[in-house]
Structures are given as structure tokens and as C-alpha cells.
Batch of 3 targets.
Target 1
Amino acid sequence: MSLSIRAARLTDLPELVAWNAAMAWETEHRQLDRDTLQRGVAGVFEQPRRGFYLVAERDGVAVGSLLVTYEWSDWRDGDFWWIQSVYMSPDARRGGVFRALYAAVAQRAAAAGAVGVRLYVETENQRAQATYEGLGMQRCHYAMYEAALAGTGGSAD
């Protein structure tokens, strides 16, 4: 079965929204507001400076995706590429889909002159952590904090 990675297209929007909602439910038992989520995913296509989605296809059928966003590092004079919103359809898991998506991100990041690739992971998700470590990623020494701003719907996602 052939696996390919491509840039997401606007026609992928319904699937990206559904996958984001499924990922939030599976990982955090959070029910996301679909209208907000749809606007959020569409916002990436509307303003490419925000990032981009990649889609993995197996034999022409979309089986997973991720979002890449950018963080400027003044310390390193370059961008970190953040991997977010990772989702694989259940039947595609443990089949090398994330590995292929990660390789595509790393290749594009290096070609663009990025200084590194980062992602965050739920503290209890040992399987994902093992996957990331198996790809050569290392746990960093930073903890993450957030604060919701008034009028933004309550949570700081």
C-alpha cells in the first residue's frame, strides 16, 4: 500500500475539522465548538503565515494529518516549526503514517532554514512519547503554561 504526503487543500477542510474534533475528544475528552473549529482551520488557509497542514494518503485515501505553525526564536535567530493537531484515522495507526508526516515536516523545515521542530504531547500519552523519542526527538526542559483571555470563549486553546 502506497503512502504519500501532500499539502492540504481547502477541499480537505471538512476532514481536517472532523479529525481535529476527534483528536480533542480522544486525547482530552473535550467537545470542541464546530463553528469555531471550522473558522480556525479555515484561518490557516486564509493566512499562510499562520502555518500549513499536511495530509497523509494511503492509496489515494486521506488517513492522517498534522498542522505546522511557526515560532520565532530570538535566541537562535530562526523559526521553530511546531507540529500540532496530529491525527491518524484509527485503521492507519501504528502503520508509519506519523513517521512519514514527521519526515516531510523535518525535510521542509530544514529546506526553509528552520532551527528546529517542536511539538507538545499529553503528559500521560506514553505511546506518543515513545514514538517521538524513536524519531530522535528529545524531551525539553520547559513546562507549558497558558491563560485564557477575556472574550475568547473560555479556554486558551
Target 2
Amino acid sequence: MVGDRGYTSHRFREHIWGMGARPAIPPQRHEAPVACPEWIDTNRNRVERLWARLKQWRAVATRYEKTATSFAGVLCLAAALDWLKP
């Protein structure tokens, strides 16, 4: 389970461990460091940057579509155009 600093509560980490997964969530600045492989943190950063670029699309940021299917279509379109962009 990969997440950002917003999900650093001990209760949430214990819930992830209880489900059989390993949490890869960086600690808050005032907390002790948590062991996390470098490649997980790199990939988490890539995903966060992708969401930041996708939210530049107004339809993605405000979620105009009413159904999950049409929203997924807009996400796919935005991701494809982001991928094609030089």
C-alpha cells in the first residue's frame, strides 16, 4: 500500500498490516523515519506528479461526470494526451 503523508496514522498502518499488505507511507516530519525501499518512494512520487498534471484538466479536477464510467473515460483521455505530449 503506497500513500502520502496524509495517511501516516498508526491506526491506518496497523489496518494495512492486518490486511496482509506492507505500508509504504513516509512519516510526518516530526515522526521517526520508517524503512521504505527507494524504488517505492520514487514510484509514489511519479504517481503524485501524474495526478497533479491530470488535475490541470478541469473535468478531472472538479469531476463533472456523474457516473464512474464516464469519469474513467475522461481520466483515460487525459492520461493518453499527457503521455502523447512532447
Target 3
Amino acid sequence: MTQRSSQFDFADHSHRRYNPLTDSWVLVSPHRAKRPWLGQEESPSKPNAPEYDAACYLCPGNLRAFGDFNPSYSSTFIFTNDFPAVKAKQPEINSTDSPTSLKSRLLKTQSVEGQCFVICFSPKHNLTIPLMTFEALIKVVGAWTDLYRWLEKEAAMENKPYKYLQIFENKGTAMGCSNLHPHGQAWCLSTVPSEVEQEFRAFKKYLHQHSSHLMGDYITLELQERERIVLENETFLVVVPYWAVWPFETLVVSKPHLTSLVEFSDAQRKDLALIIKQLTVKYDNLFETSFPYSMGLHQAPLNANMKERANSWFHMHFYPPLLRSATVRKFLVGFELFGEPQRDLTAEQAAHRLRCLDSGVHYSQRSSTS
């Protein structure tokens, strides 16, 4: 008969952690990190691309899919996606099914309209966010803000059905990025995406139960415990959330109650640009590779009313897949697909490793600065 340990060790014993943002659980199995790895390994990604690529449809002056040429842009450049996921105009869905029928009950459909944009962070093909200058990243944050503000005006003045702007970036081939030119995307939809809506419901429920905002209380807790903090400045806090699924997942959250980009002051935009650069430099330095991730901004809906703004809290999710090294990634398969998400190191272990890394000098630049 196996004897029970006299004291529970979070760094060694399996346990579940609750995610209040999604009302779900993640299984943590830190003892599994000791097992040998015999699975698929990725190729390490190194920053060795040219500054300009004549075959790249995102580089300045180059031809895109439908015959348009990019301008010779010298800073952040936004254009309408040539292959958008949603259309700006389409017919309404007309159903003749009875509202009490099984089909109406189980096979629900909702029309979605909107616009999709590509956001080129830099004209230089060989840069990624951690290799960009702080000044260039301020312009990226400014471009995100300008797009949000412009779409709010479009919705209000042109009577367009825009409700939410989802800004995101997929970095690296491990996260499905098909073009390595530094860029992100922004999808503007007539609906609020499910993941965001789930967070809004969690915020509303928490406020009703505790008369305070979930994010505000979580920031207070993290600042008290300081076990999972990776970075912080005047405006933003970066933590490995207690309920993280991805090995080195992080949450970037505004300390003051800011609901969207358009509420930021100039100083707060600079704080966001700086902490994004510092975090992504840490990521690259962790395994000395161009660290892949998916990143997304969550904020208030477009033209949010007073209640929607009070319920929103600006934050960013970073979901990187690398687990043990530059070549070993996390796969969400098996139990993760059919049971619940699972991770092999605790949030505290991941935060400690990230916190101890240099956030100022990129590993590829060390030889030139030493």
C-alpha cells in the first residue's frame, strides 16, 4: 500500500487550479516534468531573415494577393486583410423553423459581419517585437489605439454593426504563422467573441457576489504574494496566472482600472510598449530562440455603455507553447482534449524562471554589447 506524504507539496504533487475567468479547472502535474522526452521536437528558430524579402507580401512596396502594392511605409502599417474571416456585408439568415423545434433548439446559427485588418509592426522583415526599438513599439500601441478609435466612429457615424475588436498576434511557425514578417491582425466583429464574453460573464458574476472587480482583486492578491510576478511598472503587471495552462503563459494587466486602449494616457501607452518589449525579450532569452506565442488583447467592446465599461478591464494574454527547450513544445491533446487542460510545471516555477531572465538585452545582441 502506497504511503501518503505527510505534507502536500505544490511543486511535486498533482492538484487542480481554478480559472475564475473561464469558470474551468486545470490539472497541474509538476512531477511529470521529470519524465524523459521522446516525442516530436521543433527546429530552433533563430533571427536570420533578411531585412527585406522581395517575395514577402507584407514588405514595403511589394505586390499583395489581389494586385495592390504596399506603400513604401516606414513605420507601423495597417491594411484591410485580403482574405478576411468575416465579410462587411451579407444577407440576413431567414429561418422558417419553428422556435420550439429540436432544430431551432440545437442547431443555432448567427450571422456575423465585420472587417479584418493586417497590422505590419515594422517595415523590416527580419524584426520581431523583442528586437524592435521601444520607440517603434510605441507606434504599434498607437496604431492599435487609432484603429480602435476609428472603428468606434465608423460604428457610431456610419451605422455599422461593429461590436468588438479582437487584436492578436501569432508569432512563429509553431503557432501557425504563415508569414514571418513582424505583424499581427485585428478582427472587428458584429458580435463579442465567446472567450471574451465568457470573461465578461465572470466579471459580472464576481461583482454581484463580492461588490468588487475580479481583476482588481486578483491584482491586489498577486501584489501581496509576489510569487507569480514576472514584471511590473507604474501601469502594468505581468504574472504567470495561478491557473495558467501553457507552460510559460503570462497575463499582462493594467493596475488602474483601464477598460480599453483609448483610455490610456501617453505615459500609459509607453508603459505598455515597454513591458511588452521586456516580456518578449525574456521569452526569447529563456531558451535562446525566437520564442513562439499567440498574444491577444482583451478590452471593452466598441462604443461600450457605462455598465459595459465598468465590467471591462484591459489585459493581454500570452500563450507560448514551448515546454522544456527551444525544441520541445506543449501539445494540448489526449486528456487535455477530452478531460481538462493539464500542465507539467507550476505557475510559480514558470514565473521564477521568467523573472530571473534579462529583460533588457536580447540574447542575440549579447556578443555585440559585451
